[in-house]
Amino acid sequence: MINHISGNEAPENRYSSEVFHELLRALSDETRQEILKVISCQKEICANDIASNFKLTRPTIFSSFKLMKRVRLLSSRKEGKEIYYSFNKEYVIGVLESYLNRLKTCC
Question: Which helix (H) or strand (E) covers residue 99, if one does?
Fold first, then answer.
C-alpha cells in the first residue's frame, strides 16, 4: 500500500519516499512508458483505443493500466462498458517536485 502523507505537510514533505519509488518503478517499464505517451497526448482515451496501439495481449495491457492506476499515474472513469483513462499530470508533478525539494534541503 502506498503511503500518501496528509495535505497539511510542507510541500517538500507531502509525499513519502515510498510514493516516489513506486512511481519510478511503474515508469521503469518501457511498455508503461509507451502507454503513458499515448494517454498523455489526449485529454482522456478509451482503454480499447490504447490497447489497439500495442501488439501485446489485452491482459498484459490491462495489468499495466491497473498498476498505473494504483500508483496514481492514471485516473479512470467508466461510461457504459468503456473505461476512459487520463494522465494525472498534476499529481505526478507534485510527487516529483516534492522529492526534488527534499533533495535540495537535505544535501
Answer: helix 89-106
Residue with cell 499529481: 91
Rg of the chain taking only CA atoms, in angstroms = 15
SS3 48: helix
Half-sphere exposure of 37 (CA within 13 A, CB side): 8
Domain limits for position 21: 14-100
CATH, residue 20:
1.10.10.10
Alpha-carbon span 61 to 53, nearest angstrom? 10
Total count of domains within the chain: 1
Quote the CA–CA distance of 24 and 7 in Å, as a whole number. Answer: 21
Q: What is the pLDDT of residues 7-53, one digit of tens each?
A: 454 544 567 888 888 999 999 999 899 999 989 988 999 988 888 88
- pTM, whole model, 2 decimals? 0.77
